[in-house]
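Hey, quick one: can you model this chain's 3D structure?
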Amino acid sequence: MNPITQESLELLKGALAKPDDMLAKSISTATGLLAYDLQAPAKNLYPFVTPIRNVMPRVGGGTGSATNWRQVNSIIGSGFDAMGWVPEGQRSGQMSYSTSNKSATYVTIGEEDAATFEAISAGRTFEDIQAQMAFRLLQKMMLKEEMAILAGNASLMLGTPATPTLSSRPSIRSAIKAFCASTMCSRRSTM
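Sure thing. Here's the predicted structure for all 191 residues.
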C-alpha cells in the first residue's frame, strides 16, 4: 500500500477513536446542511363551497347573442278581486293579460392560468403541474359561477332610486282619542 494512503488511514482512525468536540459541534441543523421533507403533491387548503351551483341543473344555451322570452306582467280580471261573486245564472267577464317582450344578452365568465415549460419540467417529480392547474382552474370557475348566481353581474350599474317622501300621520294618542270620542269609550259606566 502507498505510504501516504497508509498514513492517511492511520490519521483517520486516530481522529475517529478520539473525536474532537469542536469538530463535532461545528455542523448542526442550523447550518442548513440537511434534507428537506417536502410532501407531494401540494395541499389545496382553500375554501371550495358551491352548494347552489352544485344543485342547479345544466340547461343548454341558445343561439345568437341573447335569450328572449315573453313575460306576463299582470292578469286583469273583470271587476275587483274582492268581489269575485257571480249571480246565479250569470257568467263572469273574461280576464285579460298584460305582457311584454324581455331579453338578456349572453355574457362570458372566465379565468385563466398558465405554467411555463420550466415549471412543468421542474415539478415533474413533485406533482403534475398541468393537471393540478386545470383542476384548480375548474374549482376557481365554480366559485365564480356560485358568486354570479348569488350576486348577479356586478359590473352593471343600478338605476337611481326615487327620493322618498314623508307624509304626516296623526300620533297614536290622537288616533285613540278620536276613536274613543266616536264610540262609547269616552262614557264611563257607573254600575
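One thing worth noting: The mean pLDDT is 81.
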